[in-house]
């Protein structure tokens, strides 16, 4: 298997976190959010560098979603993290959140959403049952390629046409073996 020495997956995630950094920097400069924009930011509370009060950490042991809209203060943004003051049940709190801890960013006013991997190279997939599973796209593709061609795939000569439903219409796609196109000696 070819190893990705450049790590495009990490570069892409860093670039997308740069979008959040830029947006929050502009909000910090003006002290407010433009127009009807507001942000839902989900982050891992146990990630390195996250600083929240013990009460919040006890309540949100793994992850937490904050809403930045009208009532926030002291928003400061650096290259690696942001600080913000928010109120939770009428209790003012200061949160320090590294961008590397952010798992989701959503601006419902324009339906813009970013979702980040739990670990480099992994993608979180949510199925119809709304349960997330970890999926490594590189390993999955490699496994598919290593399995090789299907022995029971019909050839292009028309084998397997009796699988068609009555009425002449096909359902789904045809699977064609590459051997059907190779020159025979």
UniProtKB/TrEMBL annotation:
InterPro entries: SspB, SspB-like_sf. Pfam families: SspB. Residues 143-185 are annotated as: Disordered. It comes from Georhizobium profundi. This is Stringent starvation protein B.
């Amino acid at each position: 298997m070819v190893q990705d020495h450049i790590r495009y997956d990490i570069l892409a995630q860093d670039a997308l976190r740069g979008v959040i950094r830029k947006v929050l920097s502009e909000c910090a400069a003006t002290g407010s959010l433009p127009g009807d924009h507001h942000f839902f930011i989900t982050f891992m509370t146990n990630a390195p560098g996250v600083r929240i009060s013990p009460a919040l950490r006890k309540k949100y042991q793994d992850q937490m979603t904050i809403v930045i809209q009208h009532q926030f203060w002291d928003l400061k943004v650096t290259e690696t993290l942001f600080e913000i003051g928010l109120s939770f049940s009428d209790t003012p709190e200061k949160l320090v959140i590294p961008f590397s801890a952010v798992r989701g960013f959503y601006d419902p006013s324009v339906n813009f959403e970013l979702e980040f991997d739990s670990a480099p190279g992994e993608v979180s997939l949510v199925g119809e049952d709304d349960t997330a599973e970890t999926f490594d796209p590189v390993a999955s593709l490699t496994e598919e390629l290593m399995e090789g061609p299907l022995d029971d795939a019909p050839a292009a000569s028309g084998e397997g046409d009796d699988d068609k439903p009555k009425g002449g219409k096909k359902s789904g796609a045809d699977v064609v073996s590459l051997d059907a196109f190779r020159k025979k000696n």
